[in-house]
């Protein structure tokens, strides 16, 4: 009920990676990324909400992304290097100090990332965050971990407990 009210109040729509989102800011200033991509808006920000049963699928963004917890249940944010050479780690986003949580985390450009709410009895049935990307988000700079890819096969083999996030 609380999640549905937030979805309606914030004007969120389904996100391709799972959950709900709405862009709330797109800079009018452009920058030229040093990696040769075409000019991008300098900064973008979205609201992103995951309901209890939802997750953010494994994906990469070619710009740095800052996740900030706003409300609801804590969030497990998983990350791994772009080649999956190391085991995915995770941080817990939430209010400061609540069971080892921190309110903010930066995912460096190109890293694999996925997320899901951490639910405990009495917690809200959703997680609400903002995600700020710089240089600004562009779907041309976004890719999913394809289910039939070598990366997905490695995920299933080495970290089967995280394969459900593909």
Characterise the protein shown here.
With 166 residues, the protein is mostly beta strands. The chain has one domain (2-165): Jelly Rolls (Sandwich), CATH 2.60.120. It contains two helices and 13 strands, in the order αβββββββββββββα. It has helices at residues 2-10, 150-158; strands at 13-14, 20-26, 30-31, 40-41, 44-51, 56-61, 64-72, 75-80, 89-93, 104-107, 112-117, 126-134, 142-144. A six-stranded antiparallel sheet has the order 1-2-5-12-7-10, covered by helices on one side. Strand 3 (30-31) and strand 4 form a beta hairpin. The longest helix has 9 residues, at 2-10. The relative contact order is 0.24. The mean pLDDT is 95.
CATH superfamily: Jelly Rolls
Low-confidence stretches: none
Strand element count: 13
**In the CATH scheme, what's the topology name?**
Jelly Rolls
CATH architectural type: Sandwich
Mean pLDDT across residues: 95
In the sheet with the most strands, the strands line up as 1-2-5-12-7-10
Specify the overall morphology: globular
Helix proportion range: 10-25%
The major beta sheet can be summarized as: 6 strands, antiparallel
The level-1 CATH class: Mainly Beta
Radius of gyration (Å) = 16 Å
Task: Write a brief caption for the model.
By secondary structure, the chain is mainly beta. 11% of the residues lie in helices and 42% in strands.
Keywords:
166 residues; mainly beta; five-stranded antiparallel beta sheet; 11% helix
Note the topology.
Layout: H1 2-10, E1 13-14, E2 20-26, E3 30-31, E4 40-41, E5 44-51, E6 56-61, E7 64-72, E8 75-80, E9 89-93, E10 104-107, E11 112-117, E12 126-134, E13 142-144, H2 150-158
Antiparallel strand pairs: 1-2, 2-5, 3-4, 5-12, 6-11, 6-13, 7-10, 7-12, 8-9, 8-11
């Amino acid at each position: 009920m609380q999640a549905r009210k937030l979805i309606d109040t914030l004007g969120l729509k389904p996100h391709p990676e799972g959950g709900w989102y709405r862009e709330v800011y797109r800079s009018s200033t452009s920058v030229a990324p040093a990696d040769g991509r075409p000019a991008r808006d300098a900064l973008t920000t979205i609201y992103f909400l995951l309901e209890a049963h939802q997750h953010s699928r494994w994906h990469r963004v070619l710009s740095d992304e800052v996740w900030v917890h706003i409300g609801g249940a804590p969030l497990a944010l998983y990350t791994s290097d772009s080649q999956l050479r190391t085991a995915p780690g995770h941080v817990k986003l939430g209010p400061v100090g609540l069971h080892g949580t921190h309110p903010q985390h930066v995912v460096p450009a190109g890293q694999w990332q996925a997320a899901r709410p951490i639910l405990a009895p009495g917690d809200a049935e959703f997680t609400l965050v903002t995600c700020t990307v710089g240089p600004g988000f562009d779907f041309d700079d976004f890719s999913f971990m394809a289910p039939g890819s070598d990366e997905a096969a490695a995920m299933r083999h080495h970290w089967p407990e995280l394969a459900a996030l593909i």
